[in-house]
Amino acid sequence: MKLGLVTYNLARGWSIEKIIEMCSKTGFEAVELRTTHAHGVEPSINLEERRRVRETFEKSPVRLLSLGTTCEYHSPDKAEVDRNIETTKAFIRLAYDVGALGVKVRPNRLMEDYGIPREKTIKQIAEALRQCGGYAEQYGIEVWLEVHGYGTSDPCCIRDIMELSNHPYLGVCWNSNETDLINGSIRESFKMLKNWIRSVHIHELYDKSYPYRELFQLLKDTNYNRYCLAEIDESSDPERIMKYYKALWEELIK
User: Fold this and answer.
1) Who's near 230: CB < 8 A, 6+ residues apart?
2) How close are the terminal C-alpha atoms of the chain, in Å?
3) pLDDT of residue 226
4) What is the mean pLDDT of residues 177-205?
5) Is 178 exposed, middle or buried (0-12, 13-18, 19+ CB in 10 A)?
6) Dihedral sign, CA of 130, 132, 138, 142?
7) What is d(CA 73, CA 5) in angstroms, rounded to the nearest whole number?
8) Helix 155-165 vs helix 118-139: angle between axes, to the nearest 10 degrees?
9) What pLDDT is attached to residue 12?
10) What's the Cα-to-Cα distance from 57 to each of 19, 21, 230, rounded to whole Å?
11) In this structure, what are the phi and psi dihedrals at residue 237, rounded to the nearest 5 degrees?
């Protein structure tokens, strides 16, 4: 297991060069570039810019692991879902060009409060994901569904989506949510999703309401050898915060 960074929110204002500099100084080994942030790595950039991004990371000790999108597939408006699928495909092509491994997407919410049954939304999300997975396979890029959203942050919901979508290039981004907890433990939720976990988001490690030590042990038990990505708030002294974060992470994974 290795430690990485999500640019949401600590690094939202940083250039690629600043991201690499700060991660290198503090022992963070990978990054997920979240869309709309100052790094500017978006589907709109041209091939030359994509080549520059790829080469910049390849020459550095920091891996460009993934692209964090806001693509979502829950809307009752088919045209909106189709737009999100096409945007996902654009990010898949971008990930291929810049040398990333994965593209993170999200379910975002169920629509029961709008009178749409849970099962219908889950099926719709799964069908959209399967399309994205089939497209991603052509490029050798993985698509990771974040455990996120109103109703959809329930691990049972994510399990149902993944079972229905059923594609080898689809995985789960574990998001370290309160909704993972059952009687103070995440063991049952983790067991539901462990076979699909391809990426992990972690938050404030000092927060004892979430059992991070248990999470890291469960990941080790499944031989997880990928990255845990820190998704933490901005700071006026980011280098110091990142150094402390790395030190605490190293203690918790022992």
Assistant:
1) 3, 4, 5, 6, 10, 28, 202, 203, 242, 245, 249
2) 11
3) 99
4) 98
5) exposed
6) negative
7) 26
8) 60
9) 97
10) 10, 11, 19
11) -135, 70
Rg (CA), the chain: 18
- Contact of 186 with 218, CB cutoff 8 Å: yes
Q: How many residues does the chain have?
A: 254
Residue carrying structure tokens 């929110």 = 9
Tens digits of per-residue pLDDT, 124-175? 999 999 999 999 999 999 999 999 999 999 999 999 999 999 999 999 999 9
Neighbours of 168 (CB within 10 A): 9
CA contacts within 13 A on the Cβ side of 132: 35
Distances (CA, A) of 164 to 32, 97, 126, 170, 222: 27, 29, 6, 11, 23
- Return the structure tokens found at 47: 């091939």
CB 136 within 8 A of CB 143: yes
Domain range list for the chain? 2-252
Q: What is Dmax (Cα atoms) for the chain? A: 52
Write the pLDDT tens digit of every residue in 84-103.
999 999 999 999 999 999 99
* Per-residue burial over 99-126, b = 16 or more CB atoms within 10 Å of its CB, e = otherwise: bbbbbbbbbbbbbeeeeeeeeebbebbb
The predicted model gives 237-251 an average pLDDT of 98
- For the structural domain made of 2-252, what CATH number should be given? 3.20.20.150
User: How many angstroms separate the CA atoms of 82 and 73, rounded?
Assistant: 8
3-state class (DSSP) for residue 237:
coil
- Measured from the Cβ of residue 249, the count of other Cβ atoms closer than 10 Å reads 20
